[in-house]
Amino acid sequence: MIETLKAGEVSAIDSKTGKVRVLLKGDDDKTTDWLNVLVPYSESHSDNYTLSLKQTVYCLFFSEMPEQGVVLGCPMRGASSSESEVKRTFSDGGSWTYDGNTLTLNIGKIVINGDLEVSGTTTTGGSINLNTHKHDGITAGGDMSGGPQ
């Protein structure tokens, strides 16, 4: 089996099926059939990475069926992250970063559907420890301060 690797631009997106069509420039400007986009670990959980129109992608085609192939991925953009950092920046400027056992969210709003359990030291703004912080007349932590029950 001979494989062919080609670069092209995303020309159409079907988000519901996770497929795209790709314009193969320099190949008589042919557009592919709908191609699957490969993502990591999608058999064990659901990963969704939406590509953008005109985004450059690399596709692998098989010689027995040249009209069929898969999108392997797109070129990585340069980043200002360190070697140990994993970072995802979204088109609206929001991002998450994981580095040295610390997850940092830089986003406008967090919505949690379900239970939230927090353990360990909880701080805000890097200076207030929510586990021990208290105001006059109010007890800290899980103590009851005499309000409605």
Number of helical segments with 4 or more residues? 0
Strand content: 35-45%
The first-level CATH class name of the largest domain: Mainly Beta
Q: What is the name of the CATH architecture of the largest domain?
A: Beta Barrel
Largest sheet: 5 strands, mixed, barrel
Q: Order of strands across the widest beta sheet? A: 1-2-4-6-5
Uncertain segments = none
Helix content: under 10%
Q: Over the alpha carbons, how many angstroms does the gyration radius reach?
A: 24 Å
Count up the domains. 2
Global structural class: mainly beta
Question: What is the CATH H-level superfamily of the largest domain?
Answer: Gp5 N-terminal domain
Q: On the 0-100 scale, what is the average pLDDT? A: 78
Shape: elongated
* Terminal-residue CA separation: 71 Å
The tally of beta strands, per DSSP, is 11
Order of helices and strands: EEEEEEEEEEE
Q: Remind me, CATH topology of the largest domain?
A: OB fold (Dihydrolipoamide Acetyltransferase, E2P)
